[in-house]
Amino acid sequence: MSASVGLVACCVFIAALSHPAAAEDGYRAGAHVSDWNYTVGGGAVAVPNYEGSKHEVARPLPMLGVSWRNAISLSTTEGLKVVMRPLSDKGFFVAGDFNYWQGRQEGVDKHHGDTLRGLGNLSSGAVGKLETGYQYNALSIGVDIARDIGNDRDGTTVTPYAGYKIYQSQKFRLSGKISTTWADDNYMNNLFGITSVQSRNSLYHYTPYTAEAGMKDVRFGLKADYSITQSLSLFALVDVARLLGDAADNPIVKTEGSKEQISGGMGLAYRF
């Protein structure tokens, strides 16, 4: 998985706080919205080396995206996404998207003690997600259901969330988001479980462990955005998660990792 969980979390957080539902402010005010919108930018993030790691690693954060009428978009943060607003109240939306999970390599932590050595690799693959939510003024609430497609994690998660625009002026914006995630048996056991074979092969000889379905984590994030010009903005973000239940109590996290997962980064985005 390398740093993919933390990196994806950052990408999703960026996307969530600039979600198409937030663009409804323009619709409500009757403002003209261009059919086509583009984003080009990038930055850097520090993210956990893998989900449950106590070490962080720096990664680039590319931001490339194109959207049509705030309904169909393709980006490095959300993949391919379709948003529908079936009601007259444009604050309500239903969305579906396909993204990509990078998998997990057992040698990813070789510079920090080979924590995962002997556990085997988890192959990468697509992730499909269905989301529904509502935006009302500064508050947004919603829930998404994600399902792995063709990768070794092979799990399903359900994530309810709430976001809030804490402060907004002509140039500066500050937003926050809190969420919690439930994961099924496959997701939990493939990421956090230890089989008898893995126990024998691991350098640390972990005790065999079965991770069952349950609440996986609770997460809180902040994003600040400053408009340098009408099109160019500087953003900074921080994301703090705490693993829960079997995700926190497994030997990988309990003996060699950390329940607390912290990510942060900054960059520039140009929108036109």
SSE diagram, text form:
Layout: H1 4-17, H2 24-29, E1 36-48, E2 56-68, E3 72-75, E4 79-84, E5 92-101, E6 125-136, E7 139-149, E8 156-168, E9 172-183, H3 185-192, H4 196-201, E10 214-227, E11 232-243, H5 245-249, H6 251-256, E12 260-271
Task: Describe this protein's structure.
- By secondary structure, the chain is of the alpha+beta class.
- It has a single domain (4-271), classed as Porin, CATH 2.40.160.
- Helices cover 17% and strands 49% of the residues.
- The protein contains 6 helices and 12 strands.
- It has helices at 4-17, 24-29, 185-192, 196-201, 245-249, 251-256; strands at residues 36-48, 56-68, 72-75, 79-84, 92-101, 125-136, 139-149, 156-168, 172-183, 214-227, 232-243, 260-271.
- A 12-stranded antiparallel barrel has the order 1-2-3-4-5-6-7-8-9-10-11-12.
- Mean pLDDT is 87; it is low at 1-6 and 16-32.
* The CATH topology: Porin
User: What is the alpha-carbon Rg in Å?
Assistant: 19 Å
The structure class reads alpha+beta
Average pLDDT reading = 87
Distance between the termini: 33 Å
Task: Please give the share of residues in helix.
Answer: 10-25%
Order of helices and strands: HHEEEEEEEEEHHEEHHE
Number of strand segments: 12
CATH C-level name: Mainly Beta
Largest sheet: 12 strands, antiparallel, barrel
